Amino acid sequence: MQNLYKGIFAGAILATLSCFSFAENGTDPLVGKWKTIDDRTGYSRADVEISKKPDGSYEGVIVATRNIPGTEKMVICSNCPGHLKNKPFLGLPFIWGFKQNPDNPREFNSGRVLDPIGGKIYKGKARLSASGKHLNLRGYVGVSVIGRSVTWIKY
C-alpha cells in the first residue's frame, strides 16, 4: 500500500512539472519553430527554432533547409564570416541577441541576423503579430530604413 502512495505521489509531481514546463513555453509566443519565407522568391527556405537563453535574450537555430525549385540545396555556409564559415546550415545560429522591449512585449530589439547566403551579419529587430503566428523580422545596416524585412510563420 505504501508503494502505491509513493507511485501516486511521484506521478503527481511529474504531472505538475510537465504542466509548469508547458505553461512556460505556452506563455512565450516567440519560442518555438518558425518557417522562414524568402522575401524575394516567396518560397520557404528554412525552419528556425527560437529559444530563450538564460540571460533573457533569444536565439534562433536552423533546424531544416529547403531549396528553391530548380536550384541546388545548399548545406554549408561557405560565405559565413569567422567561426561560422563552412559550418553546416543545420544547427547554425541564424539570429541571436534579441531582447524583448519592456514597453511593448511584441517587439524584440538589439539582435543580430545572419544572412547565410550572402554571409553578412546585420542588426535586427522583430515584431510579433497580435495572433503570435507571424513574426516580421527586419535586418538592417546602420538605421532601420536601410534593410529588408521577412515574415516567418509559426508552426
UniProtKB/TrEMBL annotation:
InterPro entries for the chain: DUF2147 (IPR019223)
Domain DUF2147: start-end pairs: 32-153
Keyword line: Signal
Any Pfam family: DUF2147
Cleavable signal peptide: 1-23
Keyword Signal: yes
Name used for this protein in its record: DUF2147 domain-containing protein
Organism of provenance: Acinetobacter terrestris
